[in-house]
Amino acid sequence: MKMRTLLIVAALQGGVAHAERPMNVDDAGTLERGGAKLELGWSKDDKARGLEAAAGFAPADKLELELGLARVRDRAASPADVIHGHGLAVKWVPLQADSGLSAGLKYEYGRDRLDGVSTRVHALSGLLTWRFEDGPSVHLNLGRESSRERGERENLGTWGVGVDVPLGARLALVVETFGVEHSGPDRALGLRYEIVDGLKVSAAAGRGNGRSFANAGIAWEF
Questions:
Q1: pLDDT tens, 19-65?
Q2: Is the torsion defined by CA of 167, 30, 22, 54 positive or negative?
Q3: Rg (CA), the chain
Q4: Are 39 and 218 in contact (CB under 8 A)?
Q5: Which CA distances in Å does 200 have to 11, 58, 67, 116, 206?
């Protein structure tokens, strides 16, 4: 069940809901009150390929809600497995700063269905971000994930460290490593480019645990 759980998380998060593309490690920040975002993306993880869509909204200061849908086709099986999933996330970041420390919490729920069998995932993560003035941001995630399938439950610790480095006014380099308890670390490198204010495209690729993975997408904040 562990690999299937990882695929759900990768597709719906991102991370059960996604961090800012193309990262899996989330930042301690939210949209401004009344702000919204739409995201579309493609991802691969070994022989699995997925498409995902997400919408987010900030109904109050320091609070962000997100809904996500995903479809993953896993060619490791013959015939290929097709997994449909949906998820939601609630992010609350009471401490936010333009520079220095920001901190908050994120709750995520994801559910997928394969051949009539559902897997449910609940996750709670602590989010820390340190923003250097006019420089990079460093993100730390520590959490716990609980998955349930066919009456069996699995609880795993999760972690992630990421760095967001501006390369210019609109281009940023992202570097991250993240993982799940009892598995080795995944490592990824990517780029994010802001075409116009609020409209960003991104892509990243990485390796870990004997396989490669990647994602690409577009996000619009308004």
A1: 799 999 999 999 999 999 999 999 999 999 999 999 999 999 999 99
A2: negative
A3: 16
A4: yes
A5: 19, 19, 19, 36, 20
